[in-house]
Structures are given as C-alpha cells and as structure tokens.
Amino acid sequence: xxxxxxxxxxxxxxxxxxxxxxxxxxxxxxxxxxxxxxxxxxxxxxxxxxxxxxxxxxxxxxxxxxxxxxxxxxxxxxxxxxxxxxxxxxxxxxxxxxxxxxxxxxxxxxxxxxxxxxxxxxxxxxxxxxxxxxxxxxxxxxxxxxxxxxxxxxxxxxxxxxxxxxxxxxxxxxxxxxxxxxxxxxxxxxxxxxxxxxxxxxxxxxxxxxxxxxxxxxxxxxxxxxxxxxxxxxxxxxxxxxxxxxxxxxxxxxxxxxxxxxxxxxxxxxxxxxxxxxxxxxxxxxxxxxxxxxxxxxxxxxxxxxxxxxxxxxxxxxxxxxxxxxxxxxxxxxxxxxxxxxxxxx
Amino acid sequence: xxxxxxxxxxxxxxxxxxxxxxxxxxxxxxxxxxxxxxxxxxxxxxxxxxxxxxxxxxxxxxxxxxxxxxxxxxxxxxxxxxxxxxxxxxxxxxxxxxxxxxxxxxxxxxxxxxxxxxxxxxxxxxxxxxxxxx
Amino acid sequence: xxxxxxxxxxxxxxxxxxxxxxxxxxxxxxxxxxxxxxxxxxxxxxxxxxxxxxxxxxxxxxxxxxxxxxxxxxxxxxxxxxxxxxxxxxxxxxxxxxxxxxxxxxxxxxxxxxxxxxxxxxxxxxxxxxxxxxxxxxxxxxxxxxxxxxxxxxxxxxxxxxxxxxxxxxxxxxxxxxxxxxxxxxxxxxxxxxxxxxxxxxxxxxxxxxxxxxxxxxxxxxxxxxxxxxxxxxxxxxxxxxxxxxxxxxxxxxxxxxxxxxxxxxxxxxxxxxxxxxxxxxxxxxxxxxxxxxxxxxxxxxxxxxxxxxxxxxxxxxxxxxxxxxxxxxxxxxxxxxxxxxxxxxxxxxxxxxxxxxxxxxxxxxxxxxxxxxxxxxxxxxxxx
Lengths: 346, 134, 385
Hints:
The complex is a heterotrimer.
Chain A: E1 5-12, E2 16-19, H1 20-27, H2 31-38, E3 42-45, H3 52-67, E4 74-80, H4 91-99, E5 106-110, H5 116-129, E6 135-143, E7 158-166, E8 172-184, E9 187-188, E10 197-198, H6 204-222, E11 232-235, H7 242-250, H8 254-257, H9 263-266, H10 273-284, E12 290-294, E13 299-309, H11 313-316, H12 323-326, E14 331-332, H13 335-341
Parallel strand pairs in A: 2-14, 4-5, 4-6, 11-12
Antiparallel strand pairs in A: 1-7, 1-8, 2-3, 6-7, 8-13, 9-10, 12-13
Helix pairs in contact in A: 1-2, 3-4, 6-7
Chain B: H1 2-7, H2 9-14, E1 16-20, E2 26-27, E3 42-46, E4 50-59, E5 71-72, E6 78-85, E7 90-94, E8 108-118, E9 125-133
Antiparallel strand pairs in B: 1-2, 1-3, 4-6, 4-8, 5-8, 6-7, 8-9
Chain C: E1 6-13, H1 24-39, E2 48-52, H2 56-60, H3 65-72, E3 80-83, H4 89-102, E4 108-115, H5 122-129, H6 145-160, H7 164-178, H8 192-197, E5 200-202, E6 205-206, E7 216-224, H9 225-231, E8 236-245, H10 260-272, E9 282-284, H11 290-299, H12 308-313, H13 330-334, H14 338-354, E10 365-372, E11 377-384
Parallel strand pairs in C: 2-3, 2-4, 9-10
Antiparallel strand pairs in C: 1-7, 1-8, 4-7, 5-6, 8-11, 10-11
Helix pairs in contact in C: 1-3, 4-14, 7-11
C-alpha cells in the first residue's frame, strides 16, 4: 500500500497571553503554588474576534502553503474541537469556504474532548490510504473554556493546528496509528453550559495516565519500537506536569520531549494541544527521525501515531515561521482585559 | 441576514474581487461592469491580502454597542483602515490585534480571517477579513 | 429648447435643533407653509412638490412621506416626489424642482427637505447615517461617517501638513456665524481649544468638528421667469444647477483627499452660469465635518489643493474677508437635519441676495455646495439676483 503522511502543517497561536501570576492576583490566590502544581507560567488568549474557526483558517493557510497544494485539491476536511462556534452548524464549512476548498468535500465537525484533532487525522489518513481521496486537512482547534477561578483557568488557552495529509511529497510518513478508548468520566461539559466540570485528581491516574500509557505501549508494540527509537515524543499537555510524568513512566528522556512541550508558555489549547506540539517537533526533526505522538481526550481515549520524517521536511519548512518563533510576538493582558476579551463576566 | 452574508462570502472570506478580461482593471469588491472600459467580460480575482495602510482612524464612538442589529465583534475603540492591496485595489477594513499607537500611514499589513459581527448571542456570526500589522 | 430662467420666490424653514414637540410631518408642513406665505402665491398655484429626505424609514419608521407631506400640507392632489441622495437629498430635491420648472412643465413648485433624527438614540443615528456608505464594505465593518471623514482628514494632514487647529478654526468661524442666526441649532461661541479638547469621535475628528444631529425642515418656492417677475420683487435666480456622482466607497476613489464629484459639479455649474470663482461673493459649503469645508474650498477651485487649511487660518473665509464661507453657520453650527440641509443652503443664499440675511455679505452671486455620503454625490448651485 502507498505511503500516507503529512504533506504540510501549520500552527496558529493567538498573540495575547495572560500570566498565571495575573490570574492568581485577580482571585487572591497564591501564584507560586498554582504554578508549581500546574507547571504552567502563562497561557495564550484569543483576540476578541477569534474563535475555533478563524484560528483553524490561519493554521490551514500555513499548512496548504507549505505543502504547495491548492485549496481546490483538498477533498476532505475534518475538524476537532470542543469549542465549535455553533452548537448546530458546521465549523468545517466555514473553514472550507474561507480556504476555497473543493466543493466535492468529505467533512465533519468532531468532538472528543482534547482528542478530536487526532481523531480527524485518523479519518483523513484512512481516506487517503484507502484511495478515496488525494489530499485532506485534519484540524485540531480550540478556544478552551474554563470556569473563572477554577485552577483550569490558569491553563485553558487557545490555538489551532492543521495537518495537510497526502500521499505525495510527504514530509513525515505515518507508520502506524492506534486508539485506546474507555468510558472514563474525568471531565465533561453538558449541553448549553458555558464551562466544563472535572473530577479533580480523578483526571490523573485512571484517566490521563492510564490512556496515554496503554496507547503508547500498544503502538510501540505494533511498530516493534523501544523508547530510544524515537527522536521526539509528544503527549497531550493539559498542564506541564502530566506529560513529563507520563514520559518518565514510559522511559523517555527530557531530550525526546523538549521540542514538543509548549504548555508552560501557551497553556492547554485542548484539541490543538498535542498537534501544536507535533508542529513544533516537525520544525526541528531531521530526515528519518521517528516521532511518537499520543493525544488524550477526556471521557476518555488516546490516539497514538508514529511518524518518520522524510528527506523533504527540512527543505519544505525552510521559508516558514517556526512555532517557537510564532510564540515570541506576544502581548500580556491584565485580567480585566482578558475577561472582556474572553467574555467572562463571572 | 443569512442570504446577504452567504451571497458575499467570496469577498468577505477570501478577498475575491474581479478582473476585467479586456483591460485588466482590478476591482474590490467585484464589479460586474468594468468602470474603466465598460466591458462585461469579468472574471473573479482573489487578492493575496498583503498591502499597506493608506490612511486610518481610531473609532471611539462607533456602533459596536448597537444591540438592535448586528453587533461588531471588536474592542472599543477600534481601528479602521484603508489598505492598498499589493495588486492595486484598496479596501476598507478593521485592524485586529493592534493598538492605535502602533499604527502609521505606510505600515505593511496582511489580511486575516476574523469574526466581524454577530446578530447577538443567538444569531449568525459574520466572518470576514481584517488586517494585522505584518 | 430650455428657455426661461428659474427663480426662488419664497423661502421658509423651521428652527434647526432637537425639536421634541415636532415630528417629521409637522416640520415639513411648517416649512412648506412658511415658503408659500413668503412667496405670496396662493397654495393652489403650487403644481408639484419635491421633498429631500434621507431616511425617514429608519429614523421614524415612516416611508411614503411624499404624499403624506403633500396631503398634510393641504397640497394634495398635486404630484409629490421624495428625493434621496443621503446628505445631498435637499440639493437634489432642489435640482429636480428646478428641472421641472425649467422644462416648462410647471410654473410653480416647492422644493423641500426634512429630517427628523432625534427620535432614535445617537448610536442608532450613527448607524442610520452610515447607510449612506457601502453597507457591505464600509458600514457593516464599523466604518462610521466620522470615521470615513477622519481617514480623509488624516490623509490631508499627512500630505499637506494641514493641522487639527486649522480644522478647528472652521468650527470656530461657523459657530461665530451662527450666533446671529435664530434658526441655528448651535448658537454658542467656541474657541480653538474647545474643539481641540472636545471628545474624540474618530481620530483626528473630535466632537466639535462634527455637525450636530438635528431635526428640521426647509422649503423654497421655485417659479418660472414669467411668474417670478409677476409675483415677486426680489426673485433669486438659479443660474446653475449641477450634480455629479462618484463611487460610494472611499476606498474605490482615485484620490482620497479630493471629492471628485464636487470638482465635476463645480466645473459644470460655472459652465452653466458662464462664470468663474471670481464672480462668486459668498459660499455655503457642505461642512458636515470641518475637513469637508476645507476639501470643498479646494475641490471647487477657490484655493489650490492642499492650501485650504491655510486659507481658513488666514481668516480669508470670515464674513467681510475675501471669500466668506457659511455665513449661516453652515451644517456645523446651523445644524444638519440631513434632507433639509441642501434647501437651507438655498434659503441662506436667497436671504443674502435679497439683503435680509442675519450676517449680510452684500453678495451678488452665491454658490452652494451639498455633498451626499463621503462624496458619492455632489450638487452645486449658483444663485444671482
């Protein structure tokens, strides 16, 4: 069967940031202990006029441009988010229209907590692998919601990542993908509720760690890999502690995780979290290096991917801004402005 | 209203204007008749979105508090600019992610996709172009 | 085939301002009645009515005001026509009335204009006024009218070093002129500092750079040469009536610091009147914002492009100086009930030429200039005695 992989990628992180210190100050909480327990210093905040659709468009423009692929050649667009602008009315169509994609388009909005971006990637991957389509876009995008004064408010951020998948001019070949899924209610948001609830400590061991570990072990077994076969490892990043701890448990070193670990500076952009990490890894990966990506979605599941960077990657990304450079041009907001901009009036 | 937003999507979403097939004049928004030569042989032309600020203003008394109609999705005050696109035509647009002090005539800008307005919390969202400093 | 001349033989207007006791119809009727009375004609001699009005539907939810006003004025069943060209609605109404008489169809008609603006909030009226620009590509993205003129002003300042103080001087002068005008909305003396320190609306335009939101109506009786000579001792002749159009959006214009429609209408008016700027003694210019008066001075050729601010600063547009501009107080201080403004300018010209104006300029020939939107319509009239 033909190879399928990433032919272009793009991340989008809004310009604005708020520091955990500032959030803690406004609620009269102890910033140091919050930062210590979350291992997050600041998070990305969207502009007042940004949402999951607008960020997805910007990330996708970047991906299409890197892949040198016209919008009219894209035959599938799947977009994962837990902050679709409408409850009923697809985000996919908005993004497709803005990108002037082909009208012959397979598309849907997905929701699987923070995992829906990688779910999109599995769908598009399968379609290309089966010969249904040539090129497709898989997007993870979120303006993450969190209740004001919940610890989650210190991490819930905004961002988007778009993966152009195809079978030609591949920059990173998909070797394998696997998903581990159980019904584990660690985090949820009911219909018509603005903010999610979570199970506190329950989000750790039985939820995040179990799914990440089981998924990783299985996909390594499928690909006959050992931890040191991977140059780069990216896990979903709900905070700065979980992915580091999971990596340690699985026998990965800090060197393997450092390129993809962005949560300390940008927070947790839910469906985009692990995919933006992947973009950052692709900015650095060298030809034939192998990359492990494992996302996590509360509720719960984990999607694993193993990639191998091709010789085309270094040349293709050359004229594009790296994720880490995108993160440099930032403006810090005071809490009042952040609250107004994110429409939090609580 | 949905129909009008839908009808204008190519221009609102991707700066699609027009080009006269006879004299190559470019228009944004699209013009069904070439204003220069009168030709009706017109084809769509999508503009890249790169350009520079010709003039601008900081609107301090705008209609973003107009709750009866579509509400602008922007901070207050907001910046409106006339941008000369690289290809030639000019366009009036809001600036995004930008403070008044950062603006100047001649500044290089690029188009981004943003929320423009919404018909309240329940209504349709209109998306379209704004510009950011390049 | 166009034979006789056409004259204004009667004029009447309401006070301009926040007229809480009067609605749209009452305003229009008052102006019509005063104009007919001033003309000395019997109302049965009026053969047609033209009404300039920008947006009665959005301001008062009343459309079909042509017949409503004709009937309420006791003028039914004569034909009545509403004319709309945004802020130039009044002058276009005057022009339609002029053409109707000039054609030989009628001997006496009324050209009126009315706007009732204060029944909505100021945010809403800003929104309504913005319907005079492109809805899809200007207004709906947040470009207010002050915003559009502010972008012109900034460009003018950038290109020609026009200063905010020079623009403020336009307001100071027009406020001073309005002090003597009992019909004016803003009869209050102001200084340059007051303008500079007034609330920012759309940089560099400040509150006192803007014409106010006013209610008001104005009407003139237009007559054929034969009737005018019979009915009136002091007919005011309409020597030119010219109108031009341009793109509704500022961004589609070749030059952002010049209103081409003003220049084109001005040239055509001088051609019709077989005159030039040297023959004009006084101007009523469209000063919805202070920058607009500067643009008009330049576009009509009274000063070289870019030198308008200097002309104002040197005091050459004051009453008694080289070329008095807006002795009535202009839109800026007399008030700007949109549809009525063009007619009120003609009334000021009439009073000046009859010699009974509140600030007499002893003029022989006066030019009026009315603009629609950010310059998509411009109308220039020249009056003589």
